[in-house]
């Protein structure tokens, strides 16, 4: 019998008293919790705001990394990882992992349990927080996944770029440091940016060698050719793109993406910046013109899914594109602080309605999490603390939906106040009374400062079971509680039909596959 999920019961969500998990046995004896509102942490992560104000150097630096890899013979221009997988196999996908504290390690027992028999994992965005320094990979990457017996293929997120991608390239590409770039023209934007730009730490190779010994088996060895890559695996091609600091891609990477997207092989895009997220469409600009989503939607390219990290929860948007379904997914709940879902308005985007949409945690559970957090911090528990039933009821009332879990709670003036203060949207067309402008603030400012170190954590990871005709996708929950460690609950499940992705194009397979041959509703 399947484990009870948050959609079934309070116990499945982790709200009822339960035995804590054993994940802390995996952790180092001393762990420094990451506090995002600490001025020191913000200063270390200053390159993102500087790129927004004075120009983003990511594209130029990324091009230098890729060219250096090709010139030293580490890869060719196609940047393809070729695996010898059968037509039927399974793999994991986990996103936004490495804070190195309780929420990250709490994911691991369930991941090992539900991931038994998988051939590899894909790590989608932000391998390390707050800055991707190479010298922190021991406790934030190698130690947590030391017992996962297969390789892990990552793409970087914006936090991995805060050190110029030096740590990521040294760990996963074995790349030496880049030569020093020419000095910018005095008083130019780049010159002003350079005055405050954070330089990367120098990797300690002895420390890294010691860390690598935690994943020593030949079948565990992780390697990608560059910060973006394609992988031919069984009947699929997985394409991982690097969206850098600001969520777009450079001209050179855009040309490469158009090239590797050719051919009838079904494809999954993995990206650091999701295309559909929080009820909005973000197509991801390409320098020089066009967008990533235009490439994904082109029927000649046969994309069946686009999965992004960066936002630390799970969201699923099944989008109809000219009679074909493309599954757009956010899967960034792999270990970092939780981004709220209760701030997501009633969904009506890309033809996806609220009835089609799924998220984890459900909006009501997200509201409970934040109401209790701010009740404690403001010492106003009697005002702010909501029960799961109260939160589900007030979210449903404001959005005009029906609670997934049965609830008899009444919507009161107090619960409406808390929902308004914490950013729950009103249904379309309804007069807003006292809703404070906290939706974007909660996502970008308050969520990073809202990490907690006791369950439930509302983390997630994906397991994808591939066959020649379809891909079964399951979103598993990780709460930090023992019951969910032993039997991780499924919070969402859907099937991608691969036969639909290639219908009508098999006659052109010989001419189009030169590269392939070489190669909740709440």
From TrEMBL:
What's this protein's name? Metallophosphoesterase
The source's superkingdom equals Bacteria
In residue numbers, the region (Disordered) covers: 1-21
PANTHER family in UniProt: CALCINEURIN-LIKE METALLO-PHOSPHOESTERASE SUPERFAMILY PROTEIN (PTHR34211:SF3)
InterPro entries hit by this protein: Metallo-depent_PP-like
């Amino acid at each position: 019998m399947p484990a009870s999920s948050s959609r079934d019961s309070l116990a499945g969500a982790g709200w009822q008293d339960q035995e804590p998990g054993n994940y802390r046995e995996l952790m180092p004896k001393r762990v420094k919790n990451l506090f995002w509102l600490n001025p020191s942490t913000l200063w270390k992560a200053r390159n993102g705001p500087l790129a927004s104000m004075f120009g983003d150097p990511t594209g130029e630096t990324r091009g230098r990394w890729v060219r250096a890899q090709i010139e030293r013979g580490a890869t060719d221009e196609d940047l393809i990882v070729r695996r010898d997988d059968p037509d039927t196999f399974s793999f994991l996908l986990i996103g936004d992992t490495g804070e190195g504290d309780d929420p990250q390690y709490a994911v691991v027992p369930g991941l090992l349990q539900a991931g038994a028999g998988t051939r590899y994992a894909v790590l989608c965005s932000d391998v390390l927080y707050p800055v991707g320094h190479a010298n922190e990979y021991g406790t934030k990457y190698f130690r947590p996944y030391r017992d996962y017996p297969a390789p892990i293929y990552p793409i970087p997120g914006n936090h991995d770029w805060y050190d110029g991608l030096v740590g990521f390239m040294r760990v996963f590409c074995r790349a030496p440091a880049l030569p020093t770039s020419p000095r910018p023209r005095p008083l130019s934007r780049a010159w002003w940016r350079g005055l405050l730009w954070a330089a990367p730490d120098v990797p300690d190779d002895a420390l890294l060698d010691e860390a690598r010994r935690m994943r020593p088996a030949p079948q565990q060895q992780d390697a990608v050719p560059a910060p973006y890559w394609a992988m031919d695996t069984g009947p699929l091609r997985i394409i991982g793109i690097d969206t850098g600091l600001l969520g777009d891609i450079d001209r050179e990477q855009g040309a490469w993406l158009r090239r590797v997207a050719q051919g009838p092989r079904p494809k999954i895009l993995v990206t650091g910046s999701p295309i559909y997220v929080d009820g909005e469409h973000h197509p991801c600009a390409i320098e020089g013109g066009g967008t990533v989503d235009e490439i994904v939607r082109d029927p000649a390219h046969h994309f069946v899914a686009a999965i992004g990290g960066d936002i630390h929860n799970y969201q699923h948007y099944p989008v109809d594109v000219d009679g074909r379904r493309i599954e757009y997914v956010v899967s960034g709940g792999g270990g970092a602080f939780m981004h709220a879902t209760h701030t997501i308005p009633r969904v009506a985007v890309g033809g996806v309605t609220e009835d089609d949409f799924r998220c984890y945690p459900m909006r009501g559970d997200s509201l409970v999490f934040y109401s209790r957090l701010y009740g404690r911090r403001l010492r106003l528990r009697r005002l702010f603390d909501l029960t799961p039933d109260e939160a589900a009821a007030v979210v449903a009332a404001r959005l005009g939906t029906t609670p997934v879990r049965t609830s008899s709670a009444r919507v009161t003036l107090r619960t409406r106040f808390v929902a308004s203060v914490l950013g729950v949207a009103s249904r379309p067309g309804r007069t807003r009374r006292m809703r404070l402008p906290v939706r974007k603030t909660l996502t970008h400012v308050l969520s990073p400062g809202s990490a907690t170190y006791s369950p439930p954590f509302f983390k997630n990871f994906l397991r994808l079971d591939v066959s020649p005709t379809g891909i079964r996708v399951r979103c598993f929950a990780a709460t930090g509680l023992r019951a969910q460690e032993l039997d991780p609950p499924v919070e969402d499940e859907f099937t991608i039909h691969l036969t639909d992705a290639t219908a009508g194009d098999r006659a052109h397979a010989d001419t189009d596959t030169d590269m392939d041959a070489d190669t909740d509703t709440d």
